[in-house]
Write a structure and sequence with these properties.
Layout (H helix, E strand, L loop, with lengths): L1 H19 L11 E13 L14 E13 L2 E10 L12 E13 L2 E8 L1 E2 L7 E2 L1 E2 L4 E2 L2 E11 L2 E12 L2 E2 L3 E10 H4 L8 E13 L12 E13 L2 E10 L14 E12 L2 E11 L29 H5 L9 E13 L11 E11 L3 E3 L6 E3 L8 E13 L4 E13 H4 L7 E14 L5 E10 L7 E9 L3 E9 L11 E11 L2 E10 L2 E5 L2 E5 L2 E11 L1
């Protein structure tokens, strides 16, 4: 770690000296230094009733600090991370202290070069996306060289060669990638002002990993390509991307030699007070990693977006969220948002917004093969096993200057065995209702109440949740309780109460939560992690500068 810090300091010093010598007559420009810090720590109490695992350390902590220096065209940065030890629910291979992220970037007349760590995405991410989601403990950042070049206005190319982060180390596979994008309207001046706007792009990604397997003859170079298009005409937008990956035997697909493919299409139309979105996705054997033996969320090169509504309310977001199935799924989603005009009988004085959303996900319609390919699938057949259904409707209305009301109803079909990789649970059929009322006393004070209900005869039975939150411009207090009143086993009809207090001051945010947390899964965009049951105190401190 010391060597990395010295390297970064030396590089920054060289650039500072060289820049300061550019013009001795002018006022020195020392650049700008920015960053942020975050500390999350939890103290664990024993609680056998909810199945909380024993934590020998009693207290665990995740923390990081980012520092970024910019001056003119030059940027350099680093992030120090600390896991002592990683909090429950995060991969325990995050352990210790290190600098897994450091980079230098220079941009000159449209040519940008980055050495070190960087995040990148091609198109929708179906063949390449490196990003960080700290709440999931997810970070597949690249470590190598990246070049971006805007050849002319409307034509941009990118290229990279890199390894990927795996905890405090790097994975064995080398990723090589190229992407090009053309904005037709910007490239050709004659159609620059046209109502029709067209953007097209294409990508190629390959990974190299030596074959040392004693059983299988494995491809050492695995390539994937994609083509995309975005067409905009007035209020209408149509975008689509198709991806293809050659055979890539791995742990996640049980070492079959079948190629992979992905198709994502979205159409959207909007006007004042009305918006419609229709989306379709088909994924077939598209798990793509820089290490063929990696599992879980480790060393993923690509990202497969979930075509389901990303719920934020507690019960639908934490009990039955959907996790994308990279080995095969066919998904459809439709959403309509309509705002009833204000000063009407139905819209009321302030107007009413109604959102209706429906999503459905099925497995592929497959036939088993015994020639090493594993299976074959029918391209658009909907006869595959049902994985997930979600019909929800939300009504949002401001009743007065001080009162706002949100009502939501959900109907879910959730194949728990498939989505969570379990067995013996089967499919859950659930109905949910949510009432969210906010009373705003003035510009500084507000009181919000949530009441949520989940009813089902499967799994753990029915749940209820209540939340009361008081907010001030500089602090807040929230009290919440989940109650599993419908559990078939009386001894498991437990309460999960907790209280959260928070303080906001300029660029500092401090929050503390004490109470029980139920076991479940936490998902963001179809990527999930398991969250074990716990009882104790959680403290979070965030600061930026």
């Amino acid at each position: 770690m010391l060597k990395k810090l010295l390297f970064l300091f030396s590089f920054t010093s060289i650039f500072l000296v060289s820049f300061s010598q550019e013009n001795q007559q002018q006022t020195p420009d020392y650049g700008e230094l920015h960053g942020n810090f975050q500390i999350d720590a939890q103290y664990y109490n024993p609680d056998s009733a909810i199945g909380a695992p024993d934590v020998p350390e009693k207290m665990r902590m995740n923390a990081f600090g980012n520092v970024i220096y910019t001056r003119g065209r030059f940027t350099a940065g680093a992030r120090i991370e600390t896991y002592l030890n990683a909090m429950q629910g995060f991969d325990q291979r995050y352990k210790g202290v290190g600098i897994p992220y450091r980079f230098i970037t220079y941009d000159h007349k449209g040519l940008e070069i980055t050495a070190g760590n960087f995040y990148e995405q091609f198109g929708s991410g179906m063949i390449l996306r490196a990003y960080e989601e700290r709440g999931l403990g997810y970070d597949n950042v690249f470590d190598g060289i990246r070049i971006k070049y805007t050849i002319v206005k409307g034509l941009t190319v990118k290229g990279l060669v890199a390894l990927q982060r795996t905890f405090f180390d790097r994975g064995p596979g080398i990723v090589r990638a190229f992407d090009g994008e053309i904005n037709i309207n910007e490239l050709f001046k004659k159609i620059a002002e046209s109502k029709a706007k067209i953007i097209v792009g294409g990508s190629f990604v390959s990974k190299y990993q030596s074959d040392q397997d004693p059983v299988y003859k494995l491809p050492e170079n695995v390539g994937a390509w994609s083509a995309r298009m975005n067409f905009i005409y007035g209020k209408f937008n149509l975008s689509g991307e198709y991806a293809y990956k050659i055979n890539d035997p791995s742990s996640t697909n049980k070492f079959i030699y079948k190629p992979g493919s992905g198709l994502l299409v979205t159409a959207a139309w909007s006007t004042k007070g009305l918006g419609i979105i229709l989306s379709a996705k088909r994924i077939d054997n598209m798990d793509f990693r820089s290490d063929r033996t990696a599992t879980g969320n480790n060393l993923q090169i690509n990202y497969l977006p979930a075509l389901t509504r990303q719920h934020t309310y507690n019960l639908p977001a934490t009990i039955y969220p959907y996790a994308t199935q990279p080995n095969g799924e066919l998904a459809l989603q439709a959403e309509l948002t309509y705002t009833i005009k204000k000063e009407t009988k139905l819209g009321g004085k302030y107007g009413t917004t109604i959102t209706v959303n429906y999503s459905t996900v099925n497995g592929l319609d497959t036939t088993t093969l015994y020639n090493g390919l594993g299976y074959e699938s029918k391209f658009l057949s909907t006869k595959g096993q049902a994985y997930f259904r979600d019909f929800n409707i939300e009504v949002s209305r401001k009743l007065s200057k001080k009162v706002k009301l949100i009502l939501q109803y959900l109907n879910l079909v959730y194949n728990k065995d498939v989505v969570q990789g379990l067995s013996g649970y089967g499919t859950v059929y659930a109905d949910m209702g949510i009432v969210d009322v906010t009373y705003k006393f003035n510009q500084k004070y507000a009181l919000r109440m949530e009441l949520q209900s989940l009813t089902t005869r499967q799994d753990e039975g029915s749940w209820a949740m209540g939340l009361l939150e008081f907010t001030h411009s500089k602090y807040f207090v929230a009290v919440m309780n989940q109650y599993n009143y419908g559990n078939k086993h009386p001894e498991k009809r437990l309460h999960y109460p907790n209280i959260t207090v928070g303080y906001l001051m300029d660029k500092v945010r401090i929050t503390a939560t004490y109470g029980r947390q139920r076991a479940g899964i936490f998902c963001v965009g179809g990527v999930c992690r398991n969250v074990p049951a716990s009882n104790g105190l959680t403290l979070s401190v965030m600061m930026s500068f």
